[in-house]
Amino acid sequence: MIGLSAITIGLGVPAAALYFVVNYGFNSLLAAVVAFMGVVMGGSIVIVGITVGGMGNSFDSSNRLDRERLKNLRAQQSATLEELEEIASVLVEIRDVLKSVEE
């Protein structure tokens, strides 16, 4: 989410400034300043987001809670996959029964 807001500010503000210069005759010097500040603010959001926010954390860290959550998520995904495989096999059996009834 941080990356999306940084991209929106870093690219959207200069694009809007250029749009107003071209279509509405906005002052080009002021538009350049606004566009530059948009790029700077977008970059600073990325830097702060990576260093302070969740984007800077990796699963190789020594945070035990993160590793435990990842382990639980993997177990849940594995159980879900096993259930889906069982459902697929039951559906194949149902299909075979229905084909035999049709014939």
In words, what does this structure look like?
The chain has 3 helices and no strands. With 103 residues, it is an all-alpha fold. The protein folds into 2 domains: 56 residues; 43 residues. The radius of gyration is 27 Å and the shape is elongated.
Keywords:
mainly alpha; 3 helices; 0% strand
Q: What count of domains describes the coordinates? A: 2
- Count of β-strands: 0
The major β-sheet equals: none
Low-confidence stretches: none
- Coarse structural class: mainly alpha
Write down the secondary-structure element order.
Answer: HHH
State the end-to-end CA separation.
55 Å
What share of residues are in beta strands? under 5%
Q: Calculate Rg over CA atoms.
A: 27 Å
Overall pLDDT score:
86
Shape: elongated
Structure annotation, total helices:
3
Helix content: over 70%
Describe the secondary-structure layout.
Elements: H1 2-24, H2 28-52, H3 64-102
Short description:
By secondary structure, this protein is an all-alpha fold.
